[in-house]
Amino acid sequence: MAFGSGSGSLMWFRKGLRIHDNPALQYASRSSDVLYPVFVIDPHYMKPDPNSFSQGSSRAGLNRIRFLLESLVDLDSNLKKLGSRLLVLKGDPGEVLIRCLKQWDVKRLCFEYDTEPYYQAMDAKVKEFATAAGIEVFSPVSHTLFNPADIIHKNGGKPPLTYQSFLKLSGQPSWASSPLTTTLSSLPPVGDFGNCEICDVPTVQELGYADIAQDELTPFRGGESEALKRLRESISNKEWVANFEKPKGDPSAFLKPATTVLSPYLKFGCLSSRYFYQCLQDVYKKVKKHTSPPVSLVGQLLWRDFFYTVAFGTPNFDRMKGNRICKQIPWNENEELLVAWREARTGYPWIDAIMVQLHKWGWMHHLARHCVACFLTRGDLFVHWEKGRDVFERLLIDSDWAINNGNWLWLSCSSFFYQYNRIYSPISFGKKYDPNGNYIRHFLPVLKDMPKEYIYEPWTAPLSIQKKAKCIIGKDYPKPVVSHDSASKECKSRMGEAYALNQKSNGSVSEEELNSLRRKLEQDQNQQVKPKRQKTMTDWLKTEQ
């Protein structure tokens, strides 16, 4: 039963973990006597799962959980400066919210709109209860630059499937010409929360996780304060901002990454994408010339909105089956190859070093992500993109449902991008950025003494060199799981046949047709009994990209 009197608002934080440019928080605090700023610790997301391949819950690796907790501690600190605090509860978020609405005297429920299917389903139940109870619901779009539903409506009810068509439809954001509210002077006091069990933001140890060595932790700290600090540092170099050009940038740079590393802060809403956009526009006004979308920094924010829009308007966006924009491809089910890739044991140092960085940092440069995604899918191993997506979804601190799925669809040539003959070489691509192999030496110390001539393909080093480097291939570091030359040719052939089937079926490939092609491809592979010749150095130095 509700108690108390006056006008109370409940601000439900999920993403949007910030004070600046937070329309839901601003509305919740307006004309309210009391304010309940709530975050619910979801066991589904936070509870340790001993069966997962890395420390973490069933949904997230420990790096991302730690980043979220740091973001919550920072949010609580910033709320306290405004005369409030964060009320942390535990349980199923939808059920907890409804319980709070029943017990507290709340006239208004505010939360940032979320396009992910998980939140869409939960929010519908909470809204239904609130509306029936006569509680006003305010759920503004502020996680993206545009409202994906508006873009889809402009396009006749379907999401635009190319970046350029998205740009034509979107135009300038409607809010862009007005200054955003980036500070609040104070907030209403916290209301009486009765017998609801409120706790402080837990530590990872209190959640049941063991201590981790410092070198196993991501170097990126969570929270709005850190996000705004990184933003200020990034935009202070106006020349760098003006000349930023993706996909250029060094994927092997790790002491000072070649990008802003603001993606995890955008993912959790510690940084407003709208505020970032306005800051970039302010820089552009002060320079003579600057890069433009799709390669500019503003272009990257627009890519983010593009994927959000397509994801929101495409049923089954996160899977191959039942996804109308996804090519149906008979990927193999080779668990050994998947595990070798996931655990950085492919025998290709460039690929394995990237995967070690993923495990340790929860982040890597976008071109590094491209390389390992291509290698797992259409480049070498022909493993299903959904398997790689699951690994990224777990381990990345910036894992974002729409962007992660969108990029795996793209890099596996399942959607958006279809030039499957263009493959990232696991040998030559990294070498052109880092010929000495410093990135590999850092993340794969077993190879730190390998001469640079062999660092990208250590299996070609004479045994005497391997002994001197204290790294015997096949013992201290694995042999390659596949021969890149032959594997990539086989992948291209398979992709060609899969594309032909999709074209023949006009995109409606049946399960029977897909299985039939899978059997054919397996038979073709089994019939290839040509003797393998030893690769020469010339073979390995062939470049594909």
What does this structure look like?
The chain has 545 residues and is mainly alpha-helical. The protein has 23 helices and five strands. The protein has a five-stranded parallel β-sheet, with helices on both faces. The radius of gyration is 25 Å and the shape is globular. The N and C termini lie far apart (66 Å).
Topology of helices and strands:
Blueprint: E1 8-13, H1 23-29, E2 34-41, H2 43-46, H3 62-81, E3 87-90, H4 93-103, E4 108-110, H5 117-132, E5 136-138, H6 148-154, H7 163-170, H8 224-236, H9 238-243, H10 263-267, H11 273-285, H12 297-312, H13 335-342, H14 349-361, H15 366-379, H16 385-395, H17 401-411, H18 428-433, H19 438-443, H20 463-468, H21 484-504, H22 511-527, H23 537-540
Parallel strand pairs: 1-2, 1-4, 2-3, 4-5
Helix pairs in contact: 4-5, 6-12, 12-17, 16-17, 21-22
Brief description of this entry?
The chain has 545 residues and is mainly α. Helix content is 45%, strand content 4%.
Largest sheet: 5 strands, parallel
Q: Provide the β-strand percentage band.
A: under 5%
Q: Pairing-aware structural class of the strands and helices? A: mainly alpha
The strands making up the biggest β-sheet line up spatially as 3-2-1-4-5
Task: Give me the number of helical elements.
Answer: 23
Rg is: 25 Å
Low-confidence stretches: 1-5, 531-545
- Global morphology: globular
Element order: H for helix, E for strand: EHEHHEHEHEHHHHHHHHHHHHHHHHHH
Mean of all residue-level pLDDT scores: 93
Keyword list:
mainly alpha; disordered N terminus; 23 helices; single chain; 5-stranded parallel β-sheet
